[in-house]
Every structure is written in structure tokens, then in C-alpha cells.
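Ticket #4471: complex job returned nothing on first submit. Input attached below:
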Amino acid sequence: MPKLLRVLMWIFVALSGALAIATIAIHRGEQINAMWLVVAAVCTYAIGYRFYSKFISAKVLALDVQRATPAERLENGRDFVPTNKWVVFGHHFAAIAGPGPLVGPVLAAQFGYLPGTLWILAGAVFGGCVQDFVILLFSVRRDGKSLTEIAREEIGRVGGWVAYVSVISIIVILLGVCALVVVNALKSSPWGTFTIAMTIPIALLMGVYLRRIRPGRVLETSVLGFILVMLAIWGGQWASQTPTVAHWFTLTAPTLAIVIIVYGFAASALPVWLLLAPRDYLSTFVKLGTIGLLAVGIIVLHPTLHMPALTRFVDGSGPVFAGNVFPFAFITIACGAISGFHSLIASGTTPKLIRNEIETRMVGYGAMLAESMVAIMATIAACVLQPGIYFAINSPAGIVGSAPEAAATTISNWGFPVVAADMHALAQAVGEQTLYNRTGGAPAFAVGMAHIFSNSLGGQALMAIWYHFAIMFEALFILTVLDAGTRVGRFMVQDALGHIWKPLGRTSWYPSILATSALIVGAWGYFLWQGVKDPLGGINSLWPLFGIANQLLAIVAFCVATTIIVKMGKARYATVTLTPLVWLVAVTFTAAWHKIFDPNIRIGFLSHARMLAASRGSARLIFNDRLDAAVTGILISMIALILIESAITWIQVVAGNREARIHEAPFVATQFAVEQ
Amino acid sequence: MTTKAAITTPVEQRSARFKGALQLLRATLAEIFDESAYQRFLTRSELNSSRASYAMFVKEQEIRKARQPKCC
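Support reply: We reran it on our side without changes. The output follows.
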């Protein structure tokens, strides 16, 4: 393409993006079309990728086309395999895209569509994509080492230790919160519970089919599993309308929590091939298909957003979770903007597949842009709902009451009209008994998605099927994270305990498997139980805790990245990682301070505990508040340690008082380039 | 010298591109769903696909797969 045409094209993209962002930012009191969000996102991502990521590749990281990657040097056909960049892109995206980018933006929509959208766009382009890109490259240059290993080598022992504890903590909190989202989506829902219960025998059947009948035919097995899941959704309607069956699958939140805890323990102890692997395949199959379908649905139907740009709840009085737009919008949306968890994936399997380090830009930066787009779609799904309906679904009974009329009156008094009869009709349309107090984000996302699809595919008649498809999709997603996370946590604990007593480190020794599984399941199970028993629905206290933990892991990743950049002699470009690092420190430390010490009892753990103690409230709730405060405090203190250690390293290296030794694998020229 | 690209028609070129895209999609799905990993295992071990060889592959994969975190 001629240069002039290219320049004109990029000017057009920039102007279109600016117009779209101005439209979503300036409009007040009028409804806007969802396509403005899509155009703003696509143009922002295109410019971020074309210019910012190219600048980072060329100036900061100096990607070297001549340098052999570990996939080439250490190729063994098992872990290290040079792979086509598009294949690695798909593989990496499938690993980083989880339920987070769907749930976080739905919860943050209580502030209106504007704060979440701006944060998703800016956070991804300047933060999340940069983190994934640089950590992927640094892992590639270190033979595919993990973030904790790189932290130990480049920062020091404290850095490595803090990274390790952060990873375990975030896994435990993440699993507890994810399980709570499933509980809140399935409580008193025989249709949803039946469908999800059926996915367990379906996964077992897939495991046996894959192992005994058609060995290695994973795609074929996944298609078969998908058909069975669709039948299970259809069967769920029958189950919900048959009183004797419905009775068995109408479960309270505490009962569901116990079932999920028992399931988590079983999934951790059972062989991988029997439950975990087939469920993972099925979940990935449904995930990729649904994300694609939702993208097509939004583009083709381009629905109108009913949520205002900003709501009155930016002042911190929101019913979904308490706290001002700063810092809470920025920890509520983690995945989709910046997610520390991605640094574990970027330093896991992906670096071992990269064929040429030039491709880390497309895989690391590009896949995160795709995940950010998923978060924008979730924002749209939440904001196409009438605000009154959105708040009726997402507000806990402790805030709006459990009686439909009382809840509708309270929400209408906030300025978001909703009628109890309309809520009842909506619940009937989606095949539920009620949609009030369905906190956690998943039901609101499901209603939004069903609303979008029911305007074209099948009309209102299929609304209930679409709703339960979305619930199944999210619950399947989350339960897969639960299976895999419990196992990963178990292995990490076994690795650590193996240093104390060797047999505990043996991953095939059953007493150790059972003990460490119980330890991990007990830890996240406690957080789940705490959320279930919380009169405010649990999400109010636990989702911010998860957001803080996730963003703290991103701080660890940026500390590692900045240290390496400084040691590479590129301190003048360190702002690329230092800027998101400073932002995250400001956000997480402020949020943590509020969560521990804020005098507002809906925000501060300690003030809530004091209020309960003064009114002779439940001793367990008081203990939970103090535990949450302690966990937040410990996490923040550890991150402060790694920040201090990193800052000392940067100063010493820049001042010339410390050798700037980096621990990269030695340069080896690529044979691929030579052949070319 | 006449090259192959010069004598192919636009329709053939579009068809080739489409086929290429489909092959890439198939390869991506095969990688995501571990089918490629199984093929590599068979090549490396000089085995044919069977229950026994798939069981060996699964055993080899067990630790690797179980240590992979799934993102939130």
C-alpha cells in the first residue's frame, strides 16, 4: 500500500476513534448505540497495536529476529515446540480468557457505562497488553521460566518469595469468589442447577469416550459433549416444570456451596483424564463459540444502551458494591484491562511455543486486546438492560429487601424505575422463579445476552433457552477454573511442603494428594462460605478482595519487567512499565486502605466488625471481617516489600553501584532465519 | 520465466486463501484441544494411535496439564 494511503488510513482510524470516544463521553441523558463502544474499542486497539506496541518492540525490548527462541533451541516435541504464530495466538487467548472479563464489567456497570469502558480501553492498551507482552518476551529469553523464577533471579529472594505467596493467595481468593458467583447464579434455580449438574456426567462420559472409544479425537469428543450440553439445557426446562425433579434441583445457597466444595475436592483428587481434561475441552469449546456468537450478535443487532454514562453511584453509595469510582472501578475490572494472572500464563506454556521472538508482540499484546474486546462486550450486555432491572438483579437483599414490591420501590426511588410485575414477567420469560438479589454479575450478564439474542434468533420464545445457555456457559467456565485452580494450588503447596518432608512433595502419593487438596479446598471453601453467609451477598466484600489480589500480582509482574528493562540499560524507556506500575500502586493501596479502615461500614472491614461488635452481632461475621482485613493487610505489606526491593535495585543500577546482570539465556542464532 | 502465481486466476487465489485460512483454523483448534500434542507424541514415540498409546500420552500430559493455571 502506498505510504500516503497508509497515513490517510491511520488518520481516518484515529479520527473515528476520537469521535466514538467523544460520543460516549459527552452524551448525557440520551441513550446511545452500542456500536459507538465497538468503534471506540476497535480504533483504540488498532492504534495501540500499530504504534505503541511497535514502539515497545523496537525501542524498549529490541526484539531480535535473529535470536533463536527456546521452542527452537530446546525443541523436544512435548513442551518446547515451534508453532505457527496464529496457532499460538489462539492457544494463548483460550488460556487467558476466563469468566473475569465477563463478570467485572457487569459489576462495574453500576457506575454507568463510561468509567468501565474508558478503563478497559486505557488499561488494556497502556497496562494489560504491555504486561502480557513484556513478561512473555522476558520468559522467552529465559527458556520459558515462570514469573516466580524470574522474580527470584532478577529482583532477589524476597521478590521470588513474595511472588510465590501472591500466586497462592490470589488462587485461593479467586476460587472462593468464582464459586460464589456460581452459587448466586444457581440458587433456587432448578433449570440452571440441573444443566450444570448434567455437565459432570457429560464430562465423565467424554473422558471415557476419549480414552476408550476414540483415543485422541478431542475435537470430535468436544462437539459430542456440546450437543449433550445443549440437550441438558433443553432438559433443564423439563426438570424445572416437573415438580418432583424440580424439588431435587432447587437448592439454597448454603447447600450449593457445600456441593461445590465437595465437587472441588473430588475434582482435585480424581485422575486428570476422567474429569478435568474433558471438562476443560468442553468449556473451551463453548467459550470460543459463545464469545464469537456474542460478537456477531452485537455487531449485527447493534443494540441501544439504556444505562446512563454515569450513575449517581459514582459517589460510592452503589448497591452492587460500595466504594467510589476511584479506586473501586479499577479493581472491579481487572481481567479485560490489567490482570496479574495473565503474567502466569505468559510465563507458562506460551513462551515454549513461540517460534520467533518477533511474534511475542502479536501473541502477548494482541491476545490481551482480544480479551479486552470481550470485556467491552460484557459492558454492552449489562448496559442494554433497563437500569432498574440491572439494579434489581444485582442488588443484595440486605440493601433493597427481599420482598419484590419493597425492592422495586427502593430501586425506583434511586431514579431507576422498575415495576415488580415487570420483574416477575422477566423472571417467567427466562424460566426463573425470581431475578431479585441475583448478585455476582453472571445472572445480569445472562439476561443481557438473552435480551440481545432474543431480538433476532428465536425471538422472545427462546429467551429462557438463551438465558440458561449463558448461565451454563459462565458456570461451566467457572467450574473449570475451579478444577484447574485447585490442582495448581495443590501442586504449589506440595512443592513447598516437599522442602520440609520429601514424601509430601510427591504428586502421586495419595495421603499427600488428599491432605493438600483438603488444604486448598478448605481455604477457598472458607471464603465461599463467608460470602454465602454474608447478608450483603458476599460480592460486596469478596470481589474487591479478589480485584486487589489480582492487581497486586500485576504489580509484581511490572516490578520484574521494570527491573529487567533498567538492567538492560534502557532506563530511559522504563516509563512504559513504570507508569502502569505507579497507577496500580495508587489504585490497589488506596482500595486496600479503604477496605481495611474506611469508616463507612459498607466499605471498611474493621468498621463493619466494630458495628457488629457494638450491636452484639454474629461472632462469625466479626471474625470474617477481621480475617478479610488481615488478608488485605498482609498482601499489601508483601507487595510493599517487593516494591522497596525493586526500587533499591533500580536506583543502585542507575547509579552504577550494582552490576546490571540479567539472567537471559545466551544468544544463539536462529536456524529458521538462516534457512529463510 | 512464468511463475505459478502469475498464471492463477483471482478466483483460484481466493480459493487458495480460503483453504489456507481453514487449515490455520483447524491447526489452531488442534493445538488448543491437544490433538497436535498427541500427534507429536505418536511421532516422537514411533507409535500408532491406540487406546494404549493414548493412555501413555495422557499419563505424560497429566502433570503438565494439571500444572497449567486457567485464567480468571
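The radius of gyration of chain B is 19 Å. Closing as resolved unless it happens again.
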